[in-house]
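User: Um, what's this?
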Amino acid sequence: MVYRIFFLTIALFLGFNATSYSQIKLPDVTSPIVQRIPVYIPELSSLGSGNSKGKEFTEVLRKDLNNAALFQVSTGGALAGSLDNINFQSIFDSGSDYLIAGQYQIEGGKIKIAVQLYNVKEERPILGRTYVATPGKVREAAHKFADLAMKQMTGKDGFFTSKIAFVLGNKSKRNLFIMDYDGANKRQLTKHNALVMSPDCSPNGKQIIFNSDKVWDQDLYIITLGQRITEKRLTKAFKLEQSPEWSPSGTQLAFSANGDIFVSNVSGKGARNLTRSGSIDVSPTWSPDGSKIAFVSDRSGNPQIYVMNSNGSGLRRITSSGYNTDPSWSPNPDVNKIAFVRVEGGANVYTIDPSGGGQQRLTFGGGRNENPVWSPDGYYLAFTSTRQGARDIYLMYANGENQIRLSQGGGKRFPTWCK
């Protein structure tokens, strides 16, 4: 069986050019997405008896591409006839540039899914995969194919296999949780039942640092993800260590302690104080190359966003009005935007250039919109919002388009995106 599945997977690629990406220009992150790529995704055809898991694969795939803001997904029942005789002309006439279609069958309690991406105009497959999954892994298979399909159609990596960690609980009894980026498969990571705040996932996606008053005051903790979750307390001094963030290289930490910004190694040792203003300086966030740090300070009155070199020199204020918090610097140097929250007749997410120019308001949906954090590719933002009553996690493109609710149930704070 293993050898036959391997052969089927390879056979799907015969004649394909896996590096022939569509030549589309992604929209500037400050401009509207004018034209989305039209993709037709019918139901998978069943070989044998039907199964709800075949439909689940299709639904997850459709949702992923819709969430990306770059695609216009149209849907329908299973294709008439066989995949060897697709009526490409009718699909092209309906306005679709791409087709994703395939088949599935149940074998020994597992589902085998063979799915392909077709260039409709050229009437040929350009990507194919075969997955053999237990029922609980069908969503993961769909996310994996969505990643590949997005890469093939745009040249841009998908984010659909990523995770989002977050804090859940009431004011003083919170814990850290993690879920698939789309809100599925939530699981608990800690049992602190304390004031847990500000998690940040490491660049390699294997660790999460956060602060908690589990023992006494606020200290920094790191958990390592895997089959078995391990936890380590980094700091033990009475200094109110808060809002930690990994450097882009994963070799340093920036955090706040007693209202100053510090940088240390990943063990918490060798901490260097970068700010000594007598004000409250919190929430450091690194530039994509690690050479600069943005943070919040009330040194001029209301909290504002400042940028400095990572050694503490070259301090500049980049916001000038309102009450500003929650800075998060895109890890993508091509985007190079700092997201932040302005509290001014409500709380809303904005972005700004590191120079202080190009300010753009992204949320207008009512409620409190807070805690913005960038996806690993730096093109998307997760954030929390109470626009529908409960505080849940939402997704949007970097220009504010395509705002989608990801989680349900409320009580969620401080999302952080993990690879």
